[in-house]
Amino acid sequence: MLSFNYKKLLADFLAEDIGKGDITSKLLDKKRVTVKIVSREKAIVAGAFYAKELFKLKKCNVQILKKDGSRVLPNQSILKITGNAADILTCERTALNLLTRMSGIATQTNYLVKMIPKSVKLYATRKTAPGLRIFDKEAVEIGGGKKHRLRLDEMVMIKDNHIAVSSSLEDLILRAKKRYKKFEVEVESVDDAVMAAQNGATIIMLDNFTPSKIRRAVTVLKEKKLRHKVLLEASGGINENNIARYGKMGIDIISVGSITNSVKGIDMSLEI
Fold it and tell me: Of 69, 198, 260, 262, which residue is most buried, by most CB within 10 angstroms?
């Protein structure tokens, strides 16, 4: 979880909100208070650790009451914070923004994961907010999903625009095969899925395939004895209304961009 400099990122988030100083909180007398962060709805908690670290930057004492991955009910407390009132209020919005966003991602991810077979993995995409990618992707994992690529340097993924500026999809696949043992190819037809499997692609993304088209792709790959050589990923237009059906089509992965790019934050508040 902590393979990056999270403390610097959190300090930058806080500095962005504070600017030259929290001039409202400076009006307050110095007073030590104890507050709690409370959830107003059912959720999977994600980001409690980072919220704690944000308050610690202002020398507050923090107790995590609901760890990341815990289920929380309405009006249950997640964090208990003790410190100077002005310092707590200076951190309040930044901590809540991160905590509610991450918890929203984890909660939605968990909801979708429960709708598909355990053999099928739910993956996030790179449709994340700049600066928040690491936190967004971690929230997906807390909710039971998988990160997919965190950055472009992690794995080759040949997509439609790569193909558009190249001589052919097959040419790009052959180039990738010479340099990498694992790479993914986005295809828009069953024939291209077969060609990609024949030429050594290890993951094939069936982009905007209908469930029936996916079933046909799986059938053809089995007939040609290629299915066992590749992982099949369904992507595009998949949501809570149709994900259960996609999960039954014989694929290995479902990627859903909305869990990170259309986040509905969990309603939480800080109470003194």
Answer: 260
* Distance from C-alpha of 25 to C-alpha of 31, rounded to nearest angstrom: 11
> Which CATH superfamily is 6-107+264-271 part of?
Quinolinate phosphoribosyl transferase, N-terminal domain (3.90.1170.20)
Q: Is the pTM of this model over 0.90?
A: yes
Q: What CA–CA distance (Å, rounded) separates 181 from 80?
A: 48
Residues 6 or more apart whose CB falls under 8 angstroms from that of 81 comprise 34, 35, 36, 37, 55, 60, 61, 62, 63, 88, 270
Determine the Cα–Cα distance for residues 96 and 111; give it in Å rounded to an integer: 22
Would you call 81 exposed, middle or buried from its count of C-beta atoms within 10 A (0-12, 13-18, 19+)?
buried
CB-count burial class (<10 Å; 0-12, 13-18, 19+) for 152: exposed
CA 26/CA 24 separation, integer angstroms? 5
